[in-house]
Specification:
The protein has 14 helices and 20 strands. With about 450 residues, the chain is of the alpha/beta class. The strands form four sheets. A seven-stranded parallel sheet has the order 3-4-2-5-6-1-7, with helices on both faces. It has a seven-stranded parallel sheet with strand order 10-11-9-12-13-8-14, with helices on both faces. The longest helix has 14 residues. The termini are far apart.
């Protein structure tokens, strides 16, 4: 194996991280000394980097083969890990495999074997059965959020995948809870266990309660959002129907809110999260689907519209805010017949809402859909150059850009959108006429 110097400092700089935290340092050290490692650490503590760095230490640049596999419970988590890996700028090829979009696209991405594959159990098992993933050189396996994969019923697929990896030498299991027995099919042998679970809310997390006079809490939620203003907020409901109803109510009341749940098609999910990430939408109403694997910077408030089903759900929901060095607030809305769950043992501050509700300031950004992406050889630099040149935008008028395989999303200052769309309607990107419009 070609021994490579590890430019860890550069990778961290690319992620705008100054230094590893204690958990990440411990993970790197343990993985250097042990073949199998179990890493237990709170949501938002940086577990992704804690297993990507050990993977990178073992990747051989001289070998054009898949050498590591990361199995995750959801497509959102897969995409988040891929995004972090790409942002590190390692020079290794990576690809994602998950349901909800064309398998053929993934098959094309797998023809030239990526060093790292990240995927959900069902889609990975499908590719293995079809012979699309060559397993002879896969020596490192990560089961990220493995407890959630078991909870979702992926045991059979995970057992099949692990049984299809004849050259496996290293296994890393991660979780934000320690309540799950580890199945024998994982093949762990004398694993080192790192337990960084605090068993308490993050120091930076403030938890508050809000009493609703009505069992139907919609009007209380509306008044709360008016009180909180236009800060980034996730509202958790327990059912898809409740998400739809709540988002529709807020829209009728003049609140700009997105919604997100498992019944949406993948493009609808992608757009909902993109708008939330880029500030086109500041309120996201969702099920517990967004309680894991959703990595959006600077979420200020978590609102429990419905109380979570258990303590683990409460922990994972709250883990979307107060991440790393940021602070955040979780708010539980309690109906007239509801009591604070027994696992919430801290002294909580009740919120008193003002009599009058003033609508929060509307988002300053809008999201444009660009009908071209990576497969069209279009990147972020191309899009920025096109919008600033042909669309006469200043760089500060262009926000977050997300480039997918066949399309892209770009945040543009809302006041500039009508004029920009008029200026670019007959222009070309890379000598090709491409549809660009406000994302619906």
């Amino acid at each position: 194996m070609e021994k490579q110097t590890q430019p860890v400092e550069q990778w961290l700089a690319n992620l705008k991280i100054k230094a590893l935290n204690d958990m990440q340092l411990a993970s790197v050290a343990a993985n250097q000394q042990h073949a199998d490692v179990i890493l237990l650490s709170d949501t938002g503590s940086g577990k992704t980097l804690a297993f990507l760095l050990p993977i990178l230490e073992l990747l051989d640049k001289s070998k054009p083969a898949t050498q590591a596999l990361v199995i995750v419970p959801s497509r959102e988590l897969a995409l988040q890990i891929e995004q972090v890996f790409r942002a590190m700028g390692t020079g290794h090829k990576v690809t994602c495999c998950y349901g909800g979009h064309l398998r053929e696209t993934e098959e094309n991405n797998l023809v030239e074997a990526p060093a790292l594959i990240i995927g959900t159990p069902g889609r990975l098992a499908d590719h293995l059965r079809r012979g699309n993933i060559k397993t002879g050189d896969i020596r490192t396996l990560v089961l990220d959020e493995f407890d959630k994969s078991l909870e979702l019923g992926f045991s059979e697929e995970m057992s099949f995948i692990i049984g299809s990896l004849p050259a496996l030498k290293k296994r890393i299991l991660t979780s934000a809870t320690d309540t799950v027995d580890i199945p024998a099919f994982t093949g762990l042998s004398d694993p080192a266990e790192l337990n960084f679970l605090t068993g308490r809310p993050a120091d930076a997390l403030d938890i508050q309660t809000l009493a609703s006079d009505d069992r139907d809490k919609l009007n209380t939620l509306f008044r709360l959002i008016c009180f909180l203003g236009n800060r980034s907020t996730i509202v958790f409901c327990n059912h898809r129907e409740s998400v739809d109803r709540t988002a529709a109510f807020l829209k009728e009341k003049g609140i700009v809110a997105g919604f997100y749940h498992g019944a949406l098609e993948q493009p609808e999910r992608d757009l909902a999260l993109c708008k939330f990430r880029n500030g086109s939408v500041n309120i996201l109403v969702t099920t517990d689907l967004a309680a894991r694997g959703l990595d959006v910077a600077n979420i200020r408030y978590i609102v429990h519209y419905h109380l979570p089903n258990d303590e683990a759900g409460f922990t994972h929901r709250n883990g979307r805010t107060a991440r790393m060095d940021a602070s955040g607030t979780a708010i539980l809305i309690l109906g007239p017949e509801e009591e604070l769950p027994s696992y919430v043992q801290t002294t909580l501050d009740p919120i008193t809402l003002p009599a009058d509700s003033v609508l929060p300031e509307r988002p300053k950004w809008a999201t444009l859909f660009v009908a071209a992406g990576k497969k069209d050889k279009v990147n972020k630099v191309d899009i920025v150059g096109f919008l600033t040149n042909k669309g006469q935008l200043k760089k500060e008028d262009v926000g977050l850009i997300e480039v997918k395989d066949f399309f892209s999303y770009v945040a543009v200052r809302k006041t500039k959108v009508p004029n920009t769309l008029q200026l670019i309607k007959n222009e070309k990107i890379k000598n090709k006429k491409i549809k660009i419009d406000v994302a619906k």
